[in-house]
Design brief:
- The protein has helices at residues 10-14, 18-27, 42-48, 58-65, 80-88, 101-105, 120-130; strands spanning 2-8, 31-38, 70-77, 114-116.
- It is of the alpha+beta class.
- The protein has a four-stranded antiparallel sheet with strand order 2-3-1-4.
- It binds adenosine-5'-diphosphate and magnesium ion (MG).
- Residues 52, 57, 61, 91, 109-110, 112, 115, 118 line the site of adenosine-5'-diphosphate (ADP).
Length: 137
């Protein structure tokens, strides 16, 4: 069993598709083992995306991520990291496969509805960044 961090970004919350996104995870066999809604502070968002801080889009990404509340979740399942990435689709919705969350709902490469950890190391860092052991089930 593997665990990964999922975030429904501010655009997903604003579009009122929390249930739709979670339903896709559940139908694919991923289980929500931790969940909370949170309006990230600038410091929290910058710490989460620290790996991107030299990128030209960093400032804009942080502004977007703190523009409204997000839904933070830990998903558990066999191959959860890759399975979640497949359900999400490519970063740029224009490149995303049919039937993926980003293809169906995302407006741009920045406002792309969901985050998902990309490897075991990032999944470990990211799940612990937002959840204590006592908050997971
Ligand atoms: P992913 O979320 O698919 O793992 P990255 O880790 O490369 O993608 O980037 C993190 C987030 O930064 C993306 O989900 C997106 O919101 C934003 N982003 C990535 N590339 C760009 C870009 N070229 N312009 C604007 N925002 C971007
Ligand atoms: Mg990434």
């Amino acid at each position: 069993m593997e665990r990964t961090l999922s975030i429904i970004k501010p655009d997903g919350v604003k579009k009122n598709i929390i249930g739709e996104v979670v339903s896709r995870f559940e139908k694919a066999g991923l289980k929500v083992v931790a969940s909370k809604m949170k309006h990230l502070s600038q410091r929290e968002a910058e710490g989460f995306y620290a790996v991107h801080k030299e990128r030209p889009f960093f400032g804009s990404l942080i502004e977007f991520m703190i523009s409204g509340p997000v839904v933070l979740m830990i998903l558990e399942g066999e191959g959860a990291i890759l399975k979640n990435r497949e359900l999400m689709g490519a970063t740029n919705p224009a490149d995303a496969d049919e039937g993926t969350i980003r293809k169906d709902f995302a407006d741009s490469i920045e406002s792309n509805i969901v985050h998902g950890s990309d490897a075991p190391e990032t999944a470990d860092f990211e799940t612990k960044y937002f959840f204590s052991a006592l908050e997971t089930y």
